Each structure stands twice: as structure tokens, then as C-alpha cells.
Amino acid sequence: MHQTTVLRRLDQMESDLATRLFERNRDGLALTPAGELAYREAERLAVDVENLERRLAGQQTDPEGRVRLATTDSLLNGLLAPLLGELIAAYPGLDIEAITCTDVAGLTLRDADLVLRPTNQPQETLVGHRVGSIESAIYGSPAYVERHPFDESDLPGDHVWVIPDESFVHLATGRWYRRNLRRAGSTLRCNSLYGMFSLIRNGGGLGVLPCYLGDPAPELTRLSDPLEGESIDLWLLAHQDLRKMARVRVAMDFLAQRLRDRQRQLEGQP
Predict the structure, then answer these.
(1) How far is the C-alpha of 253 from the C-alpha of 83, rounded, in Å?
(2) How far apart are the first and last CA of the chain?
(3) Where are the beta strands (DSSP E) in 42-109?
(4) pLDDT for the residue numbered 7
(5) What are the chain's domains?
(6) pLDDT in tens, 117-147
């Protein structure tokens, strides 16, 4: 919208309310006390409308329609992909939209009905299922390990390490990186866990991966037991109002059970 149109509409609003909401100065517009009050009320009303929309949506009973699921690229590729196909086969009336994000911290329910995310502290405003516990271990490609034998007692050793960049400081394995790889000479940094998986799988170096991603890959060799004290819970979450919708409830319960069936894969057990 053009600036002159915005200013004209603001003038009309002040005229209709018979109240000055803005002070005009050289730098532009500044809210008056009345304007600040109107702004706070408008924010509150926007939240109320959003909550009302969720509650009305929750009145739906038929398991049909779109369900938007947000998760990480690694969880989609390592766990969810076959399960979503099973879900559609069981409930053909559903339309599943998978929204992926490389950053766990960026996963929210702002644009999704469900979110599958690793966390030990889910938001209190959300409801859902703890579907398992993710364990991680050290992996490398057979070709890399043959050229550079690995000794877990001599970390970091003379190895190239594939590690996450600073945007992944919240990773459950962050303490392990800080404790063991501070003296690492050569590193490959990546802002995606699935990108790290690809680099390690193709011989770029050694790295820590979740067992659900590393164990099934024939191009990888696991070089350690699951790292002690570095596990993190996996949660499938929804807004409490959307949880009542038939399509969200059906998708949530179906995926939660299928994910629980894969607990041994999550924990790196044979």
C-alpha cells in the first residue's frame, strides 16, 4: 500500500474517532498516549480473534482436510517419510503438508497444526505426546575410517570433524562438542543436521549424528555407543484447541503410535 494512502486512512480514522492518535514530526509519526492505548487494544483483539478461530476449528468432527506438520529435515528423512505415506493410506480424506526447517529452535506452530521436535521442555501452552528419546553416536564412512583409524580414547585425534555451526548451539550434543572437540584441528561446519549426515556419509569426516539417522545408513559405520548424557526427548505437539479437531487428533494419535514403535531405532538399539 502506498504511503499517501496509509496517511490518508490514518487521518480518516482520527477524524472518525475524534482523537489524535499520532504526532507528526520531521522523522515521521509517533504514537500519542491515545494511540499507544489503541495499539495495545488492537494487539489484544488480534490474539482474541486468533484464539476464536482455533476454537471454532476445533468443533470439526470429520477426519478430513489439511493437516500441516512442521519438523526438521533430518526427522522427516530419517523417521517420518514412510509414516506419512501410511497415514494417508489409512485416512485418505487427509491432506498432509510437511513443513521442514533446518533449525530446531525455529520450529513453531505459527504456520502448522502439529510439530514434531526434539525438546526436553515443551511449551506449557501445547499438548501432545512424548514419543521417545533420541540418542546420538559418532559415525564415519567406511572409506574414511579405513584411511584414518578412529580411537575414541584419543579425542579429537587427527581427524576432520563435521560439526554444526553456531545456529545449532541448542543441540542436545552441544556439551559433547564443547568438551571433546575444542582442540579439533580441521572442521567442516554445516547449518543442517541432514547436511552433516550427507557430508559424513560421503567421507567428509567424522561427526555425531542421531542414531535414527546414522544406524540405517549402509554408507556409515557407527564408531561409539550412544553418547552418555546427551539424549533428548522427542515430542509431537499441537495447540490444545486444535487437538480437538478430528483430522488433527487422528493424525497425531496415528503418528505418535508409529513413532513409539520405532523407539529402538531412536535409541540406537539393534
Answers:
(1) 12
(2) 59
(3) 65-72, 94-101
(4) 66
(5) 3-57 (no CATH), 65-134+231-267 (3.40.190.10), 136-222 (3.40.190.10)
(6) 998 888 877 889 999 999 999 999 999 999 9
| pLDDT classification of 56: cutoffs 50, 70, 90 | low
The region of weakest confidence among 51-60, 195-204, 230-239 is: 51-60
Question: What phi and psi values does residue 163 have, to the nearest 5 degrees?
Answer: -130, 160
Q: Compute CA distances 88 → 70, 149, 256, whole Å.
A: 17, 45, 15
Residue 51 pLDDT:
62
Above 60 in pLDDT, residue 59?
Answer: no
Residue the block writes with cell 578412529: 150
Question: Which own/partner contact pairs does 238-241 have at CB distance under 8 Å and 24+ positions apart?
Answer: 238/109, 238/113, 238/114, 238/115, 238/126, 238/127, 238/128, 239/54, 239/109, 239/113, 239/125, 239/126, 239/127, 240/125, 240/126, 240/127, 241/51, 241/54, 241/55, 241/57, 241/58
DSSP E strands in the chain: the ranges are: 22-25, 28-31, 65-72, 94-101, 114-118, 126-134, 136-140, 160-164, 186-190, 206-210, 221-222, 232-239
pTM: 0.73
Question: Residue 95's pLDDT is what?
Answer: 95
- Distance between CA atoms of residues 92 and 149, nearest Å: 50
- Residue pair 97/201 in contact (Cβ under 8 Å)? The answer is no
Distance of CA 48 to the CA centre of its chain: 26
Amino acid at 62: D
